[in-house]
Structures are given as structure tokens and as C-alpha cells.
Amino acid sequence: MIKHLPALLIVIPLLAAIITPIIGRIHWVLSWYTVTITTFISFVISLSLLQTVLLQGDISYWMGGWQPPWGIEYAIDNLNVYVMIIVSFMALAGAIYSKNNINVEIDEARKPFFYSVYLLFVTGLMGMVVTGDIFNIYVFLEITSLSGYALIAIGKKRQALVGAYNYLIMGTIGATFFLLGIGYLYLMTGTLNIADLAARLPEFYQTKAIFTAFTFLVVGLCIKLALFPMHFWMPNVYTHAPSAVSAVMAATGAKVAAYAIIRVMFTVFEPEFYTLAPFNIQPILLILAVAAILAGSIMALAQTDIKKMLAYSSVGQIGYIVLGISLMSVNGMIGSLIHLLNHAMMKGALFFVVGAVVYRTGLTSIENFRGLGKKMPLSMAAFTIAALSMTGVPLTVGFVSKWYLAVASIEIGMWWLVPVILLSSLLTAIYFWRIIDAVWFKPALGEESHGHEHDDHQKPKSNDAPASMLIPTLTVAMLCLVFGVFAYAPVSLAEKAAVILLK
Amino acid sequence: MEIIESARPVYAILVSLLAVVFIGISGKYPNLREMWTMLAAVLKFGLVVSMLPIILAGKVIEYHVTTVLPGLDIAFRVDSLGMTLALTASFLWIITSVYAIGYMRSLDEHAQTRFFMCFALALSAVMGAAFSANVFTLFVFYEIITVTTFGLVAHEETSEAIKGARRYLTYLMGTSIFFFLPAMFLTYNYAGTLDFASQGILAGKASYTIISIIFVLYIAGIAKAGMMPFHAWLPSAMVAPTPVSALLHAVAVVKVGVFTVVRILLFVFGIDLLSEIGLGTYLAYFASFTIITASILALKQDNLKLRLAYSTVSQLSYIVLAVALLTPSGITSSIIHITIHAFGKITLFFVAGAIFVATGKKYISQMDGIGRRMPFTMAAFTVGAFSMIAIPPFGGFVSKWYLILGTVEAHMLPIMVVLVASTLLNAAYFLPIIYSAFFKELPTDEVEGLREAPPMVVVPLVITALGTLTLFFWPSLLLDLARMVVSLVM
User: Fold this and answer.
1) What is the mean pLDDT of residues A62-84?
2) In b/e form, how buried is each residue of A18-54, taking b as 16+ CB within 10 angstroms?
3) What digits encode the pLDDT tens for the residues B6-25?
4) Cβ–Cβ gap A394/B143 under 8 Å
């Protein structure tokens, strides 16, 4: 049993995805229970795998007993077990959160299907992370994408259909690029196993075919990642999808795409490749990352819809992740990896709060956040913590990421990146401060005329989100603080992974 | 130096943090709520005082809380410099609490629970800053002070208050993120550590150019010290209720600012390094500019609180100037002035608040003859003002005396001219108030007769005024602490 844990990680949610709509016919809540229990099991398996990896080293699981490179291998090391925990934890939090949240955003009859697709989405993500076979990554990528399109379109909002359609087009282009890249790799080396590829590739490093393959792979994944300027499908998706979906997708989908890029760039290919490539890859990624950081923050400033603002803020945050990758140093990679976790928590918490506001008021305009501090104090406290964290205030997780990125920039002599990081922090502070200011210091819409209120006269009634939404929200927000103070635990894990990647 | 491991500094921070919870839950019962504030204030002062004998015996107290990242620790270290700030702030918190209760109740202010909660939070952060063992901890608490006092500045929730509070936040947060944080970052990058050391940590670690850049970043980043051009937040903060202006914007917040400057200058750069590069001299002249300009601006203000605010800007730069001289007397002056100015300025603000409570007057031009109606209050004002001008026998004289000695030791006679000019300017903006209060006729529509503010407002300001006198006659404790710092860093 223990030996088969890597396979169970995929098999359990996959089977549960089939069961969910069936038992959902009895009552939809049963499908919610299935999803919660399944994602919880995934999370526990991930933790147990982490323990195994830490104590006994990397795991290689042969699917069906076939020896790699002929069979499919599930290869688990420090890097993917780390991503696995992020994905399964956020999937669990999202599942718990969705129970009440989807009441307002998804039709009653569709709920069992929603949960089924949700599990497929999680299966796809976990599969991409766990597998050691590059073609398998493609397969799971498609599972993720297809279920992702369905998740977005399942809500009540009709605009979501357009968003899902755009995403479908872009996602398919991205996946096709990725597949083409794999095709070239297979053509040259005759293998699809990542470890095997890594061993065989160096002799072909100078060929045009391999360089083409690399470009296809990375561009394809960058589209899935929504790296600026390939981000334009994303804001509409996050804006119109049900809030629980936006939260989980922002917290996990982009993270796994980033993981895939790191895998391709540093495991399939090795740093040596970048010195032999016909043109210099590092500055291109670096410039894209910086452009993403600045453009995302600036566009976020201009938004009036909170979900759209968070989506553009994600564009900027993805820039941070790519920035760390493009520095190609251990500290940069730590910054990148730690930001995978940190951004998952921060953005997850923010979208959770937005979902709670939608649940209570049905509105997503920033204007609507005025005076919510008195009506939804706990949710807004979580929002404030996550927002401070996004800004990079010390003792929150955001600071840790930025610290490592800044250290890495200076290490390799790129001074000018520090002001860029600072500037984007300032912009982030501005666009979040607008909201925090409105939440705590402005009267609610339509209540301005009461004038100077004395607090003991009339206190607006607290009407916070239900517990099933508050608990995951507050937990994730608290983790933003916990891992901000005791940052060394995740950092040490990220450090191990980074050292192996850049060996 | 003997090191004692003890969590007492942490308790001193936690006590008011804990009080916040109790204040919050007993918001419906004002008397109970105020009891928590008083209890926390007294306990905090007690805890600080209990550490005093250890510090005076030449030992330091250390406590390591956690390591955030390698090189970034949350850790505390109580030494004579931090002790001076902690003693001053925690003692004056007791007095201010009494005053604040009287003030807030007399004016029937709204949101008093939030007010006292933010106040206690801010005081926790001040203790944290005073006891910080490294730049990172200091930075964290520096930021917490900004955030917690924002709620106090915005207290009135009028559009003017919100505007002032935004400016407050923009200046303090903006400069700290844009200058202080990179400075800390560069320090870490070159020195490899952020722990304070008595001879500095940067010497020999980087070229003079880099060190100068770091120096400029720090000075620009610590806007709480009120140096021009980043001083405008302080007048803006005067929209806050007077107890806030008194304790936070004359004592706690701004003193944390100058304390941070002193700390960074002496314990990050170190005296030798600074005098080697000559950075101290530049800073001294830069501070002189603020001293003179702020005094001139103070002359023009008719709003009493604004005049006091500009006076604070000017007086803070005395502290920066004094430490920038890098001589024993200069450093002594800067450290004792932290406390001496605190007592003087808090008295003056208390008076401004008392006048507002008793008569509703805010402007100096309305205050003719007010000394006859509020003799105790205006007597205390006179004491505070004389201390600012540095007339004996008031505290201000002691610190100015050492400051003058310091300029002589540093052979910087032009600074002496600045001091004389500033003393005259101080006299020029304080004496007319005293003159018109006591010697001008009351406006015709007002009746003669005693009309003081409530005792809870008047007693605290009399106590702080007496404190100013005490500091002249018995400055020995303060001077001992300052001498210990000097012997540490010299």
C-alpha cells in the first residue's frame, strides 16, 4: 500500500471523480463530502511522500511495474513533493470553501458535475507534478485544461463562457506547442522519460531541432502560465469564473505551470544548454518577467472590479516567479519556489474573501467594499493580512519571496532589479491600500448621510461569511503570517530543491 | 560585557498587547476598559524599571525570539540606549493615559475603544523598537508603529483627518519602503549580518561610496526623525486628538525616529567609520538646516498645535545634530535630549489640549489673557517653553550645555552660530504666547475667573512640568545611561 502511494495520488481522485456525479444524484452534499475527503486524502498522501523523500531520498515508482524508460515513471523529489503539498492543500481548502460558496454562483443541478470536474482538475494537476515522463505531463496538462474550461463555464455568469472560450483557444495553442516540443525531443533522443532525456540530451545541445523543441516547450508553458504578454486570456477567466474556481485556479493552476517550466528548464535541460543556445535565453525571460511585474501592477491599479484587479496582480506575481527562474542562481530559484507557495496562499486567501463578499452582497466592484470592515470583520481581517503580504511587509510571506529575489539580483550583479521590486511593491501597496482604506475607514454605500456616528449608538450588524468559508479563508491567511515568521521551514525545502536543480 | 538571557523585554512588549484584547472586550464598560490601560501602563513601566539595575550594573539583557530567515532574526537586546527610550516612553504613557481619559471623556469623543486599543498597540511597538537587537527587528517595529498610529491620526474620521492620516502613512511608509528597506538590504548584503555592534558592522566591508549611499538611504528612510524634506507628515498628524499628538508625535513615534538614527549611526556604521569618511559633518549641517528652517516655519503658525509640531521638527534635529558631532558630549546630549525634550514637549501639548478642553480655543491669537483663567496650565506651559529655549533651571539647559560642549570638541564653530540662532528663534515663537497669556487683557466678551480643565487633564501636565525641573536638578540617572552608551561606542 505504502509503496503505491504515488499511484494512489492520481487513482483516488480519478475514481472519485467518476463516483461523484453518481452519488450526487441522491443529494449534492454527498458529492461535496466525496471531494473534501478525496482532497484531504491527497493532502495526507503528499505529506507522507514528503516524509519519505526527506528521510529516504527520491522516490521512483514504476507504473504497472514496467521499468523506465519503457514504462511510465513517477519520479518524486524535493521539488515536486513541495509543489504537490501546495496543490493538494489549496485544493482541500478550496473544496471546503466551495460548499456554501457555490450556492450563489452555480445552479443547484450542476453542483455534482462541478465537483466531478473539480476532482478531474485536481487529478490533472497532481499528475503533472508527480510524473517523471514528459509525454505524461502533456496528458495531464490536457486533463487539467479541459476540466479547467468546464469549471470556468459552469458558473451562472454568461460572460464566463467567453472567458472560457478564449482560454480554450489559448490553452490549446499552448498545449499544442508543448506537444510539438515533445515531438522534437522524441525525434532526436527516442525517449520520453525525463531522467533519460536529461542523460541523452547534452550531445544534441547544439542542434537546431533541440533548440526549437526547447522554445516550443517553454513558450507553450508560458501561455499556460499567463506570463506577460501571453496573459490576456487570464483576467476574464478569473473575473467571471465562480470565486471558488478563481481561488483554486490562481493558487494551483499557474503554480503547476511554473513547476513544469522549472522542470523543463532545469531537469530536462541543464544549465549548460543555456551557454550553447544560439541566442541568450536568460535576458529574454528576465525582460519578460520585469515587464510582467510592472505591467501587472500598473494594470491592476486601473481596475474597478476586484476580481479583475486580483487577476492583473497575478500577472505581476507570475512575473516574480519567472524572475527568480531567469536569474539562474540558487537564491533566485529559492525565491521563485518559495513564491509558488506564498503566492498560492496570498492569492487564495484574497479570492476566498472576494467569494465571501460575493456570497453576501453579490457584487465585485471595489466601490462595494466600502464599510465592509464592520459587516464582515473576520473576512476583511484575512483580506488585510493577505494584502499586506502581497505588498511584502516584513513578517509576512511576501517579504520572504522578495528578500530572496533581491538577494539573488544583487548576487549576480543586477542592481537595477532591486528598484524594480521596490516599485512594484509600492504599486501593490497603492492598489491594495485603496481597498483597505475603503473597507475600514469609509462608511458603506448609502450610509454616508448618517454623518458622525458614535460607536455606541448604532453599530452595523456583523454579517460575516458562514463558517465553511471563513475557516479555510482564515487558515490560509494565518499561514501567510506563520510562514512569514517561521519562514525557514518552507525555505529549507525550497533550498534543497533549488540546489539539486542548479547542481 | 555580561549577557543575561531573559524574556523580560518580551513581557514588556506583550503586556500592552495583552491589554489590547481586554480593552477590546470591555468596550462597553468605560471604567473597566480604562482600568486595563492604566494597569498595562503601570505594569509596563514596572517591567522596564525592573531591568534598570541590570543595565546600570553594566550588563545587557538578550532574548532571541525566532529566526525568520538566516540572517534575519527577531531578537531583543536591552542596553543603556534602548533603556533611555523605554523608560521615557513607558513612564510618560502612564501620565498620558490619565490625561487621555480626562481629555476623551471631557470632549465625549467617539470610538474611544478603538482609540485606547491603538494606543496600547503603538506602545508595544515602541518597546519593541527600543529593545531591538538588530536592524531587521527595529525595522519591523518601526513599521508596526506607523500602522498602529494611523488609526489614531485618522481618529476623527473627518475628511481633513483622513487626508492628514493618508499623508502621514504615505510619508512614513513610502520613505521606509523606498529607502530604509534597501538600506537594510544593502547592509545585510555587505556586512553579512544585521546585529547591532558597538563599533559598527560596516567598517571595512564596502567602499566609501557604497557606505555613503547606505548612509544617505538610512537618513532618508527614517522619516520619523522629522528631518527635512520628509517632515511634512508631522504637521499633518496634528489632526489627531491631543493625547496622541502629545505622547506619540512629541515622544514615542518621533523619538523612535531619532532613536533609530542614533542606533544606526553608532551601532551599524560606528563612530570611527563615520568620522573617517566625514559623513557626520555633512549630517550635522543637514540637521542644522532643518533646525533653522523649522523654527522659522514655527514662527508663522497661529494654530498652537502646529507651532508645537514645527518646534518638534526643529528639536528632533538637535538630537540628530548632536549625535552627528560624534564626540562624547555630543552623543550624551543627543541621548539625554530624547528624554528632556519628551518631558518639555509633552507638557506643551498637554497644555494645548487643556486649553481646547476648557475653552475650545486652538489659535494663539485667541489666547490673550488666558493665563489668568488657567494659571496652572499656563504656568506649566511656561516651564515647558523655557525648557525648549534652554533657560536654566529647566531640563533643556542640560542637553544644550552638552551640545555646545560637543560642538567645541568637534571644532565646529559654525554649528555654534546655528545653536544661538535657534535659541533666539525658540524664544521668539514661545515668549509671545506666554506674554499674551499673562499680560494681555482678556477679550471683552469673556468673564474673569478661574476656569481650568478637569483635574484629570491638569494634574498630568503639572507632573510633566515638574519633571522638566527635576531633570535639571537630578539628571544623574539620565547622564549615567548616556555615559554608558558613550563608553560603549567610543
Assistant:
1) 88
2) eebbebbeeebebbbebbbebbbbbbebbeebbebbe
3) 989 999 999 989 999 998 88
4) yes
A415 in reach of chain B (CB within 8 A):
no
Residue B136 Cα, gap to closest chain A Cα (Å):
9
Q: Which helix (H) or strand (E) holds B64?
A: strand B60-69
Whether A242 maps to a domain, the answer reads: no
DSSP annotation string for A313-355: HHHHHHHHHHHHHHHTSHHHHHHHHHHHHHHHHHHHHHHHHHH
**pLDDT score of B359:** 86
d(CA B167, CA A63): 62
Say yes or no for a CB contact (<8 Å) between A453 and B182.
Answer: no
* Residue B76, helix vs strand vs coil: strand
Task: For residue A33, give every residue at least 6 positions away whose Cβ sits within 8 Å of its Cβ, in sequence order, or none.
Answer: none
Q: What is the pTM of this model?
A: 0.87
Residue B113 forms contact with A (CB below 8 Å) = yes
- Cross-chain residue pair B69–A418, CB shorter than 8 Å: no
pLDDT band at A265 (very low <50, low <70, confident <90, very high): very high
CB contact under 8 A, A418 and B185: yes
> A393 CA to chain B: closest CA distance, Å?
8
DSSP state of A71: S
Set of cell numbers at residue B17: 498587547
A308 belongs to a structural domain: yes
Residues 356-395 of A with CB under 8 A from B: 393-395
Between B66, B111, B178, which is nearest A455 by CB? B111
Q: In degrees rounded to 5, what are phi and psi of residue A403?
A: -60, -50
H-only helix segments in A412-457: 417-441
pLDDT tens digit string along B205-242? 888 999 999 999 999 999 999 888 888 889 888 888 88
Q: CB distance A403–B185 less than 8 Å?
A: yes
d(CA A413, CA A329): 12
Q: Indicate the residue of B136, B154, B178 with minimum beta-carbon distance to A441.
A: B154
Q: Which of B330, B311, B312, B213 is nearest to B262 (CA)?
A: B330
The verdict on residue A429 lying in a domain is yes
pLDDT at A125: 95
Task: Tell me the pLDDT tens digit for each residue of A203-254.
Answer: 888 888 999 999 999 999 999 999 988 888 899 889 888 989 999 999 998 8
The domain ranges of chain B are 278-490
| CB-closest option in A393, A410, A422 to B143 | A393
pLDDT over 50 (residue A451): no
Q: Interface pTM (ipTM) of the complex?
A: 0.80
Per-residue pLDDT tens for B146-172?
988 988 888 888 888 888 888 898 899
Total domains, chain A = 1
Q: How far apart are CA A376 and CA A371, in angstroms?
A: 9
User: For residue A233, is it within any domain?
Assistant: no
What is the domain extent for residue A500?
302-446+461-503
- A416 touches B: beta carbon within 8 Å: no
Query: Among all residues of chain B, which has the CA nearest to that of A418?
Result: B182
The residue behind cell 545653536 is B419
